[in-house]
């Protein structure tokens, strides 16, 4: 393994729980929070399997067992907001993981090499697994990319300063 990789492995162990949770705006009804979380999980899974344009919002609602065909619209307003919620939810954990990896690299006496920086960028995507050990978020991103839906989310970059700083260090 490259020198930088040994530093990452020595400095930051993989956390036991990589499960992200839906961010909410405050004192919401626990049932609404649970429904939003279930919708985020269902959208992540279905979009990862079929692609963003092949998944109806009714299918996402049905996936969580909702009888309300407008449950996604009620909780998120529509497809784009639901997709953004999946990204924000998972990126909260990924940002924290990348920050920890960068801190480990920055503690080393020598500067981080390119391979260590690239590992810090991508390792969290491999570490983030669902309860079944599946890499659902990576599949979700591929489901967005298949329909060229990632490019339109470049405006979200400012919401993830650690990732932004890391990519600047790589470039």
Shape: elongated
Number of strands: 0
Largest sheet: none
Strand content: under 5%
Low-confidence stretches: 1-21
Structural class: mainly alpha
The average pLDDT value, as a whole number, equals 85
N- to C-terminal separation? 22 Å
Helix content: 55-70%
Task: Encode the helix/strand succession as letters.
Answer: HHHHHHHH
Summed up, the helix count is 8
Radius of gyration: 17 Å
Summarize the model shown.
This protein has 171 residues and is an all-alpha fold.
Please tag this protein with its features.
about 170 residues
Structure description:
- With 171 residues, the protein is mostly helical.
- Helix content is 61%, strand content 0%.
- The protein is built from 8 helices and no strands.
- It has helices spanning 3-11, 30-50, 57-63, 71-76, 79-106, 114-127, 136-145, 161-170.
- Helix 2 (30-50) packs across helix 3 (57-63), helix 2 packs across helix 7 and helix 5 (79-106) packs across helix 6.
- The longest helix is centred in the middle third of the chain and has 28 residues, at 79-106.
- The radius of gyration is 17 Å and the shape is elongated.
- The two termini are 22 Å apart.
């Amino acid at each position: 393994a490259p020198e930088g990789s040994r530093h990452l492995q020595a400095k930051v162990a993989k956390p036991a729980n990589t499960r992200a949770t839906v961010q909410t705006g405050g004192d919401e009804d626990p049932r609404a929070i649970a429904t939003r979380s279930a919708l985020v999980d269902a959208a992540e899974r279905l979009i990862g399997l079929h692609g963003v344009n092949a998944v109806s919002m009714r299918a996402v609602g049905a996936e969580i067992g909702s009888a309300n065909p407008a449950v996604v619209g009620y909780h998120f307003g529509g497809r784009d907001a639901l997709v953004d919620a999946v990204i924000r939810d998972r990126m909260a954990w990924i940002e924290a993981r990348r920050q920890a990896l960068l801190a480990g690299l920055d503690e080393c006496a020598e500067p981080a090499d390119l391979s260590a920086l690239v590992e810090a960028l991508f390792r969290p995507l491999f570490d983030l697994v669902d309860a079944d050990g599946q890499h659902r978020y990576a599949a979700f991103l591929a489901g967005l990319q298949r329909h060229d839906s990632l490019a339109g989310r470049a405006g979200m970059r400012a919401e993830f300063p650690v990732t932004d700083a890391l990519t600047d260090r790589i470039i």
